[in-house]
Amino acid sequence: MCPPRKWQLHGGGGQWIKGKSFDTFCPLGPVLVTADEITDPQNLGARCFLNGEVMQDGNTSDMIFPIARLIHLLSQDTTLLQGTVILTGTPSGVGFVRDPQVYLSDNDRVRIEIEHIGTLENSVSSAD
């Protein structure tokens, strides 16, 4: 099990954000879009592929908390500046809840596609 996943499961008081923000983690991109470019942010397909195999296939309409609600709640006590990134979670299908469990390994390729935004692809390498 990779260190960030261990941290998420056994540290941090139940807060998972740290596991998404270790050095070299949380890649973003390849582009940023403005609000006028997305007709409905609450209806965007999102898919994750591991070595070409679909691992996650969801839609922002499936989110537990709608984007507008997240912004409302966060902005009550946090200054949200232009360009602020809000990490919202992940569609169903994460590896550690699969049977059998799936974890990333050296040389794996992860591709993320978000409808109307773009595709981000990265290779995986261990810190060792």
What this model shows, in words?
A four-stranded antiparallel beta sheet has the order 2-1-3-4, with no helix packed on it. It is built from two helices and four strands. The mean pLDDT is 85. It has a domain at 31-116: Alpha-Beta Complex (Fumarylacetoacetate hydrolase, domain 2), CATH 3.90.850. The longest helix has 9 residues, at 67-75. Helix content is 13%, strand content 20%. The chain has helices at 3-10, 67-75, and strands at 45-50, 53-59, 109-114, 118-123. The two termini are 14 Å apart.
Q: Summary?
A:
By secondary structure, this protein is α+β, with helices and mostly antiparallel strands.
List the helices and strands and how they pair.
Layout: H1 3-10, E1 45-50, E2 53-59, H2 67-75, E3 109-114, E4 118-123
Antiparallel strand pairs: 1-2, 1-3, 3-4
Radius of gyration based on Cα positions: 16 Å
The main pleated sheet reads as: 4 strands, antiparallel
- End-to-end distance: 14 Å
Biggest β-sheet: strands ordered side by side in the sheet:
2-1-3-4
Summarize the helix and strand pattern as letters. HEEHEE
Tell me, what is the CATH class of one domain?
Alpha Beta
Morphology: globular
Helix content: 10-25%
Sum up the structure in keywords.
alpha+beta, Fumarylacetoacetate hydrolase, domain 2, 4 strands, 20% strand
